[in-house]
Write a structure and sequence with these properties.
It is a single chain. This protein is mainly α. The protein is built from 22 helices and no strands.
């Protein structure tokens, strides 16, 4: 029956083929048992001989493929899951590994597209998606050996890209979820040779996990590998343009980082050094590296024949973090002239970032921070902080700055209200409700323009156990949340005495 089904497929009779595969699978199950559809080879060692065709496995696989070819994505997804589950339960990873890699990849692709189309809830399939990527790495390890020099397995690189994308898609931002992604990326490094793409994703995963020191080390390795690639880039791009080449990957290969990817990774590294590692000099060095790359690209490919024009948003981010680094150096400097120079540079760069990217929360927030600390311009800092809140009310940092600016004007009542409203915007609010109960307030009387829908019901989080929202809280946002909560308690102590503040903490 399986052979008849294959013949029907070759004739284009997909419905008949699907019916034959159904009958074959039913027959196998009746003849053996419901758990013995797959015939397992005697040994899984590389020297063992498998039968040329494993008919039960063939029927399971082809049934799923035929359903997808007929346009039945729901049925095809179901049968793909059945095939993968059966293979996992009764066969070693090395058995039919190439086919299983393809089936698992197709399964994850359909799930991803269904999530993006709104047909599946990210939180409902999150566990399944992460397990699928874990299975894919097991299968890839059974398929590929340790790479030779300069060998990059395309299937592994594709899996790395999909894993990083899917973790964002299903909002897997908790430390436990981030650790699972880090493990997948570390395993993929054993299947590729010095791949900067894997390291780029690893840096972001380590930042999300909260291991900033390790992220800094990984980023240093990434820059080293990229600099080697850029040497080859400078040698080859002139000849490639002369020959009329138009595709970047065809000239430099699939493992070669694109210019935009390098710049985006450099921005991530610059932010890491400012926000998490407090290393302003390294941040400025990275931004200069990016500027040199942009100048090199514009010089060697002025017509954008191979490399697309650098987006303004990338240039704005570079100006942003260089400005933030200068602001940090201004705070640390003990030389009045040096401090003034850093402050002037910070203001110019941050204002440039705001002009180039007016919808950037970080640009408005860092400008507000520099205006508050460096210029002592409370009114201008308040206006920039309000703009940051309007762009992303869930980011607690801007609320915190607004509260501190209010205390600088001795307006402790308004600062307390800002803290109260700001805390409720966070996905960590449900956690805090287990510690302290407070009354909600409307943000309109504070002069803040919140996005529509930014209220308590839209910001609930599954972390607290009582929320129903689709938001996963990160450790970094949790730190910012409880820092604001401590500021609120300090303001409470200033208004009503520290005994009242301590009493409020016990509720």
């Amino acid at each position: 029956m399986v052979m008849l089904g294959i013949y029907a497929e070759m004739q284009g009779k997909l419905i008949a083929a699907q019916e034959l595969y159904e009958k074959a699978i039913l027959e196998f199950r009746n003849s053996l048992s419901s758990q013995s559809v797959i015939v397992v080879p005697r040994s899984s060692s590389p020297s063992s001989q498998e039968e040329l065709v494993n008919w039960p496995e063939e029927a399971l696989y082809r049934r799923a493929m035929v359903l997808l070819a007929l346009g039945d994505r729901t049925g095809g997804l179901r049968e793909l899951a059945s095939y993968i589950r059966q293979m996992d339960s009764v066969t070693p990873a090395a058995f039919r590994s190439f086919r299983r890699v393809r089936a698992n990849r197709l399964y994850m692709q359909i799930v991803r597209e269904s999530i993006e189309a709104g047909k599946l809830s990210p939180l409902e399939v999150k566990s399944s998606v992460m397990s699928s990527h874990r299975r894919q790495m097991v299968l890839l390890k059974a398929t590929y050996g340790f790479p030779r020099a300069n060998e990059a397995h395309g299937e592994v690189l594709h899996e790395v890209d999909c894993a990083a994308k899917d973790w964002e898609l299903v909002m897997a931002h908790s430390r436990a979820d981030s650790l699972r992604l880090v493990e997948v990326l570390y395993e993929s490094m054993h299947l590729t040779y010095n791949s900067p793409r894997v390291l780029r994703h690893l840096v972001q995963a380590l930042i999300t996990f909260g291991d900033y020191h390790e992220a800094g080390l990984a980023f240093g390795t990434y820059i080293t590998l990229v600099e080697r690639q850029l040497e080859a880039f400078r040698k080859a791009i002139g000849a490639a343009i002369d020959e009329g080449a138009t595709d970047y990957s065809s000239v430099f290969g699939p493992n070669f980082e694109s210019v935009n990817d390098i710049l985006q990774a450099t921005i991530t590294g610059a932010r890491l050094n400012v926000v998490n590692l407090a290393n302003a000099h390294e941040c400025i060095s990275l931004v200069h590296f990016a500027y040199d790359l942009i100048s090199d690209v514009e010089l060697r490919d002025p017509g954008n024949a191979i490399i697309p024009d650098i987006p303004v948003a990338i240039k704005a981010q570079l100006a942003l973090w260089k400005g933030a680094a200068h602001g940090m150096l201004a705070q640390k400097s003990r030389e009045p002239d040096n401090r003034a120079d850093h402050h002037t540079a910070a203001l110019q760069l941050l204002q440039q970032a705001v002009e180039q990217s007016p919808r950037s929360f970080d640009a408005h927030y860092q400008l507000a921070l520099e205006l508050a600390i460096g210029a002592r311009d409370i009114l201008a800092a308040t206006a920039s902080a309000k703009q940051a809140v309007a762009l992303d009310s869930r980011r607690i940092e801007a609320w915190h700055l607004l509260a501190l600016l209010s205390t600088s004007r001795k307006d402790y009542e308004k600062a307390q209200q800002i803290c109260d409203v700001g805390l409720r915007q966070s996905e960590w609010w449900n956690v805090y409700c287990a510690i302290k109960q407070g009354s909600t307030g409307d943000a309109s009387h504070l002069g803040l323009d919140l996005r529509p829908g930014d209220n308590d019901s839209d910001h609930t989080s599954s972390i607290g156990g009582s929320g129903s929202g689709d938001v996963e809280a990160s450790a970094e946002s949790g730190i910012a949340f409880f820092e604001l909560a401590m500021t609120q308690m300090a303001i409470e102590g200033r208004l009503r005495g520290f005994d009242a503040s301590l009493k409020a903490q016990t509720h």
